[in-house]
């Protein structure tokens, strides 16, 4: 019984399939289109990080989507405990909102929002191998 129904459907039965009449262009409904946004600009702020107020301003800017480059005192020699606490608080708050904070140099830090990924470029092993090969050649010459 099922086989006979399938047989009818797939060809050995009557083919009463009728083609629909073509639809005119006027019968189509035009769908509303949202205007295409242009590429969003990347916004970068450069500022000084001298006190807690500056740290709060940086957090607000990062939450708003800005990339922030902050000028700092020399991080290796010129910071005291108070400034270290400001940096620690800033890093904790940025981490809470999903952002990242990295040092660019001894006097600059880079703070980015959650939608930015920071990747460090790792030099290839080739440079290390070249250094080892030259050291081995020098050792062989000395022997």
List keywords for this structure.
alpha+beta; 4 helices; 38% helix; elongated
Please characterize this protein's 3D structure.
It comes from Methanotorris formicicus Mc-S-70. InterPro entries: Cell_div_SepF/SepF-rel (IPR007561), SepF-like_sf (IPR038594). This is Cell division protein SepF. The chain is an alpha+beta fold and 143 residues long. It is built from 4 helices and 4 strands. The chain has a domain at 44-112: Translation Initiation Factor IF3. 38% of the residues lie in helices and 15% in strands. Helix 2 (52-63) runs parallel beside helix 3. The longest helix has 18 residues, at 125-142. It is elongated and about 90 Å long. The mean pLDDT is 81.
In short:
This is Cell division protein SepF. By secondary structure, the chain is of the alpha+beta class.
Blueprint of the fold:
Layout: H1 2-9, E1 44-48, H2 52-63, E2 67-71, H3 81-96, E3 100-105, E4 108-112, H4 125-142
Helix pairs in contact: 2-3
Organism: Methanotorris formicicus Mc-S-70
Protein name: Cell division protein SepF
InterPro entries: Cell_div_SepF/SepF-rel, SepF-like_sf
């Amino acid at each position: 019984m099922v086989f006979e129904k399938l047989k009818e459907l797939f060809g050995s039965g009557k083919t009463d399939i009728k083609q629909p009449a073509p639809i005119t262009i006027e019968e189509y409904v035009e769908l509303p289109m949202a205007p295409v946004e242009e590429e969003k600009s990347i916004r970068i702020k450069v500022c000084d990080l001298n006190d807690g107020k500056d740290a709060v301003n940086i957090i607000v800017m990062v939450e708003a989507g800005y990339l922030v480059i902050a000028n700092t005192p020399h991080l290796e020699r010129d910071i005291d405990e108070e400034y270290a606490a400001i940096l620690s608080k800033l890093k904790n708050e940025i981490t809470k909102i999903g952002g990242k904070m990295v040092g660019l140099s001894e006097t600059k830090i880079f703070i980015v929002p959650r939608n930015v990924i920071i990747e460090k470029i790792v030099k290839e092993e080739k440079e290390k191998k070249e250094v080892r090969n030259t050291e081995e050649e020098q050792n062989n010459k000395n022997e």
